[in-house]
Amino acid sequence: MEKLTKALPEKNVDIRKAAIIGCGFVGSSTAFALMEAGTFSELVLIDVDKSRAEGEAMDISHGVPFVKPMKIYAGDYDDIVDASIIIITAGAAQKPGETRLDLVQKNVAIYKSIIPEIKKRGCEGVLLIVSNPVDILTYVAQKLSGFPAHRVIGSGTVLDTARLKHMLSNHLSVDSRAVHAFIIGEHGDSELAAWSGAMVSGVPLSKFCEMRGHFNHDESERHIQEMVKNSAYEIIERKKATYYGVAMAVRRICEAIARDEKSILSISSLMEGQYGLTDICLSMPAIVGADGVEEKIPISLDEDEITKLMASARALKEIADSLDLTVNE
Description:
- By secondary structure, this protein is of the alpha/beta class.
- The chain folds into two domains: 141 residues, 3-Layer(aba) Sandwich (Rossmann fold), CATH 3.40.50; 163 residues, Lactate dehydrogenase/glycoside hydrolase, family 4, C-terminal (L-2-Hydroxyisocaproate Dehydrogenase, Chain A, domain 2).
- The strands form five sheets. A six-stranded parallel sheet has the order 3-2-1-4-5-6, with helices on both faces. Strands 7-10-11 form a three-stranded antiparallel sheet. It has a three-stranded antiparallel sheet with strand order 12-15-16.
- Helix 1 packs across helix 8, helix 3 runs parallel beside helix 4 and helix 5 packs across helix 7.
- It is globular and about 55 Å long.
- The protein starts with 13 loop residues before the first strand and ends in an 8-residue tail after the last helix.
């Protein structure tokens, strides 16, 4: 396995400090989740609407007496210089009937105003991209920032993988924490479940299904994967937006970084030859620690899964190659 990181000089960051750029539903829900987690002692909120950031900071701060001490405040880009994690949730929201890739041009324009502000301040923390389409915007953030690839990651399919585990746990009547399976590729319509390597506490998924009285594997896999893929669309149709699930996914990624856990998560990051893929960001399991992506995990995929992964990468690459990433100074 080729490591993405080498020994790095000590960074000028406060491991207990994080920043969130964008205080909409996802940003504010993420701030609330991080406050409850107690992972950080300082959290700065930034939004183009400064009053919105101030209001969210005030509201969330009033719950601090019930958790661990934490300073939460509205700030500006000068306040993020020493943040260990800079979480970007800013962007246009996905509307009913709209795909994540439909958001590309609107959110790339927003990122062309945000990323240069981070770059010119010499921030040394990890950039965690959450806005959709997350794979494309992770790619954009890496190119515009010039940061090392391991320090620019997207929330990717961490939430999709959680949805898969949840649905499999319901299907099998087993604790979701015992399910080991990943959604990989695009966080979107071309994503795929890596069924060939899926297990429940070390038992191959197909064998465990039969233990629980399920034998029609192909049909069940297709049905569950479709439910995972369409989850966001169904939630948006019902309540106009999704934010709690992704906030919990971001919280989990932040914990892995802040605690240098070396956790294996299906984050989105730049592919640099893995599976023959280069110069595009998509989700694959990776070891995540204090410096971001430490190492990609080359999970075993069958021929059909590799074909689908390549198709997912092509769909993203076509979009990425069409982007104008010129920034007017």
